[in-house]
């Protein structure tokens, strides 16, 4: 109830106006939305690429963080970033249980990810990416990331 | 934490109701219910007996505590007429603040939203959702400034029942009262005991419309056959059908009113009524009956009015001709009669009572002792006619007036004489007084001049002696004194010389002693 009220307000606002580089793709219900983001400045790593984000909301949103991952298909690759695993899972404190705050919203998460990509210069995956991708069965929000890197 | 009581979801309503009220539980659908007593299948639940009510008086089965168990409007779902200032929007629920609170870091939230956000956090480590600053839960959250609350109260909203048809638009502060007290479109429990649906408040008095709807369209057993004519019809309409339409029902002849005892099926009634003289006459009789009743009803207030008028008339008569009219205390026929009792204590000029027409009474029978029984004879005196009465009244009044005029002239003459006499006396007295005053004035004048003369004489002698003594014996100081007194004595002497020739000197000593 609380989540749908809040999401309906967010949705009407997103329909109204969106920051540059962010597009609303699909928001048919209040459980799963798709957003496209694109890096606006001329970072050579992300030039001419559009990345697709999947938001999954729980009933307790916005008290609890949404689950946000990059989605890979023929048009939308997973961006190179030392905190983004090759299966699309994002290691960002904002999306973690501790880092999340109910004042964040879909738009602010998109903008955060956008700026995270913008400031990145390394074309690499997180350490242990292959192993993680192969063995991880947990849902993104149940993973206990260790936020060691405050550089990016 | 002090999180507000969550609003129960709709299916929780039953358990949230308090104990029921038997008087409210009585269903209101009497008409639709009756056929069920004949045919139980598919019928609505019947009125519960008092025993059943008592048995069902357990918390789980009771739903009719309050007739109207309305939910307060959810502020988060209100539709605002214009876009709200973004500074008044809660960052958690993204709608204008509802019961806002403030943290020490000056971030504002709805009370409810903040409690939701804090549910996930431990008591000791609660943080501000916006800035993640640590929150001292013993001190915070703080109340918001009054102006914030006022701005929120003044936001203009639409009624939450706008979709149902309510066009109420007003300040947000009033929406709670509007929805709970005034809005006709607020959903309330269906008045029917066993209906679990809602109904708008304005339809509450109509009873359970849901069941009627069910009976008309959806109930699989909604149609039945008339027990008399076996026509298929809605169970709902069976009663009306039997009462007014069904041709097979045995009904009495319309002439029953007049005494016809025939009772036949409705279809055959027309044939009977054509031949039955009583049935033909019945409408006329009914009309007559109604007319009589109307007349009687009209007669009632009229007779009451007559009674009131009679009372008033008798009161007026009493006032005009009091029962003690023959009492000798009224100076009637001859006010100047010295034998009358009324004048033994009266002054020389009698003061007749004008309330009574003195000459209008018939001669009093001599045997009637009026002073003994003044109240025994209240019968009004008989008159030949109204005009005669008035004429006698007029004559007596004229007499009275002329008598009073005479008395007045008499008084006037006497008073004039008295005034003239008195004036004369006063004039004489004034003359006397004037003369006395003149004498006194002359005496006073003489006394004053005499005193002045005596004074000048004495000062002249003393002044001369001191100046002579000062001049012979002593110095300048006394010399100046001497000149001063010389000056005074000289002026006094000058004034005295004016009057002196008129007075004899021998008188001076005697006047001194008097003063």
UniProtKB/TrEMBL annotation, chain A:
Gene Ontology molecular function: any one: ATP binding
Keywords tagged on the record: ATP-binding, Nucleotide-binding, Transferase, Ubl conjugation pathway
Range of residues in the leader sequence: none
Highest rank taxon of the organism: Eukaryota
UniProt-annotated catalytic positions: 91
InterPro entries: Ub_conjugating_enzyme, UBC, UBQ-conjugating_AS, UBQ-conjugating_enzyme/RWD
Domain named UBC core: residues: 2-152
UniProt family annotation: Belongs to the ubiquitin-conjugating enzyme family.
Protein name: Ubiquitin-conjugating enzyme E2 2
Species the sequence originates in: Melanomma pulvis-pyrius CBS 109.77
UniProtKB/TrEMBL annotation, chain B:
The keyword NADP is assigned to this record: no
Residues annotated as domain RING-type: 90-132
Stretches with biased composition (Pro residues): 1-10
Annotated Polar residues bias: 474-494
Keywords: Metal-binding, Zinc, Zinc-finger
Domain TRAF-type positions: 214-269
Comp. bias (Low complexity): 49-61, 455-473
PROSITE patterns named in the record: ZF_RING_1, ZF_RING_2, ZF_TRAF
Zinc finger (TRAF-type): 214-269
Family matches, as Gene3D superfamilies: Zinc/RING finger domain, C3HC4 (zinc finger)
InterPro entries reported for this sequence: Znf_RING, Znf_RING/FYVE/PHD, Znf_RING_CS, Znf_TRAF
Region (Disordered): 1-67, 330-381, 455-515
Keyword Transport: no
Any GO molecular function: zinc ion binding
Protein name as it appears in the record: RING-type domain-containing protein
Organism name: Melanomma pulvis-pyrius CBS 109.77
């Amino acid at each position: 109830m609380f989540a749908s009220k809040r999401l309906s307000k967010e949705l009407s606002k997103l329909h109204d106006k969106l920051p540059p580089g962010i597009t609303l793709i699909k928001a048919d219900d209040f459980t799963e939305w798709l957003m496209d983001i694109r890096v606006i400045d001329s970072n050579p790593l992300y030039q001419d690429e559009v990345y697709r984000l999947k938001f999954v909301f729980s009933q307790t949103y916005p008290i609890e963080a949404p689950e946000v991952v990059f989605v890979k298909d023929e048009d939308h690759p997973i961006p190179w970033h030392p905190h983004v695993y090759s299966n699309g899972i994002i290691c960002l404190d904002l999306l973690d249980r501790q880092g999340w705050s109910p004042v964040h919203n879909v738009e602010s998460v998109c903008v955060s990810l956008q700026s995270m990509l913008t400031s990145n210069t390394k074309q690499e995956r997180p350490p242990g990416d292959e192993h993680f991708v192969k063995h991880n069965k947990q849902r993104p929000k149940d993973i206990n990331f260790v936020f060691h890197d405050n550089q990016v | 934490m002090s999180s507000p009581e969550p609003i129960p979801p709709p299916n929780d309503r039953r358990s949230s109701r308090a104990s029921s009220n038997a008087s409210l539980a009585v269903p209101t659908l009497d008409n639709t219910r009756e056929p069920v007593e004949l045919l139980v299948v598919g019928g609505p639940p019947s009125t519960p007996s008092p025993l059943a009510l008592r048995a069902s008086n357990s918390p789980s089965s009771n739903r009719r505590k309050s007739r109207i168990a309305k939910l307060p409007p959810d502020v988060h779902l209100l539709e605002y007429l214009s876009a709200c200032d973004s500074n008044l929007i809660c960052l958690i629920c993204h709608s204008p603040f509802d019961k806002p609170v403030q943290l020490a870091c000056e971030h504002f939230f709805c009370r409810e939203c903040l409690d939701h956000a804090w549910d996930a956090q431990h008591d000791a480590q609660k943080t501000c959702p916006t800035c993640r600053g640590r929150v001292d839960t013993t001190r915070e959250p703080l109340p918001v400034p009054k102006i914030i609350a006022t701005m929120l109260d003044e936001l203009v909203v639409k009624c939450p029942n706008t979709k149902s048809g309510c066009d109420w638009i007003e300040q947000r502060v009033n929406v709670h009262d509007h929805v709970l007290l005034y809005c006709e479109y607020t959903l309330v429990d269906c008045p029917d005991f066993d209906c679990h649906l809602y109904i708008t408040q304005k339809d509450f008095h109509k009873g359970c419309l849901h069941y009627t709807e069910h009976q008309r369209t959806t109930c699989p057993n909604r149609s039945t056959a008339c027990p008399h004519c076996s026509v298929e019809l809605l169970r709902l309409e069976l009663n009306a059908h039997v009462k007014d339409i069904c041709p097979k029902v045995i009904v009495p002849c319309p002439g029953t009113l007049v005494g016809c005892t025939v009772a036949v099926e409705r279809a055959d009634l027309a044939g009977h009524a054509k031949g039955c003289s009583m049935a033909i006459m019945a409408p006329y009789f009914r009309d007559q009956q109604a007319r009589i009743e109307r007349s009687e009803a009209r007669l009632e207030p009229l007779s009451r009015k007559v009674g009131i008028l009679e009372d008033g008339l008798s009161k007026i008569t009493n006032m005009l001709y009091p029962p003690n009219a023959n009492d000798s205390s009224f100076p009637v026929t001859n006010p100047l009669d010295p034998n009358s009792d009324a004048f033994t204590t009266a002054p020389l000029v009698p003061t007749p009572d004008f309330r009574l027409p003195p000459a209008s009474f018939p001669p009093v029978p001599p045997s009637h002792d009026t002073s003994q029984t003044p109240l025994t004879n209240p019968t009004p005196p008989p008159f030949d006619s109204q005009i005669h009465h008035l004429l006698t009244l007029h004559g007596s009044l004229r007499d009275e007036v002329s008598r009073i005029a005479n008395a007045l002239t008499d008084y006037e003459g006497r008073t004039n004489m008295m005034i003239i006499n008195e004036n004369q006396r006063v004039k004489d007295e004034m003359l006397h007084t004037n003369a006395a005053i003149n004498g006194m004035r002359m005496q006073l004048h003489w006394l004053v001049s005499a005193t002045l003369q005596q004074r000048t004489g004495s000062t002249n002698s003393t002044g001369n002696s001191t100046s002579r003594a000062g001049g012979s014996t002593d110095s300048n100081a006394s010399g100046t004194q001497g000149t001063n007194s010389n000056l005074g004595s000289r002026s006094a002497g000058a004034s005295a010389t004016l009057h002196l020739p008129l007075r004899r000197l021998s008188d001076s000593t005697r006047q001194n002693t008097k003063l």
